[in-house]
Amino acid sequence: xxxxxxxxxxxxxxxxxxxxxxxxxxxxxxxxxxxxxxxxxxxxxxxxxxxxxxxxxxxxxxxxxxxxxxxxxxxxxxxxxxxxxxxxxxxxxxxxxxxxxxxxxxxxxxxxxxxxxxxxxxxxxxxxxxxxxxxxxxxxxxxxxxxxxxxxxxx
Length: 155
What we know:
The chain is an all-alpha fold.
């Protein structure tokens, strides 16, 4: 992160991290399927889980937009958002990305999604979430610390 930059300096945009991870899942599945269910009954449940994730993400994005802050972590945060899904989690959009990823994993019926999720979650935690937390604490101080004390990081 550049000194003085008004952003958290995340390693990459979170949607790109999840997309890249899911592309790895699809490539691995191509070579070695590792099915979750030999009857392949996960398509509709997986698509349902994915649709719910998209709906929750829309709620979170609208909440951020209504608060007047940037959704893109490469842009400056202008306020602490504590309404909508941010009442329950400090990172609801990342939880939605994880839910979408798992729904798609179920839909394509492969354990590779779970295998690849482990390093993805590690990268998200250290390369995105912790960097955002340090940035928000530097920028908003006590206001962010109070929010952090009231709302869980994930679930």
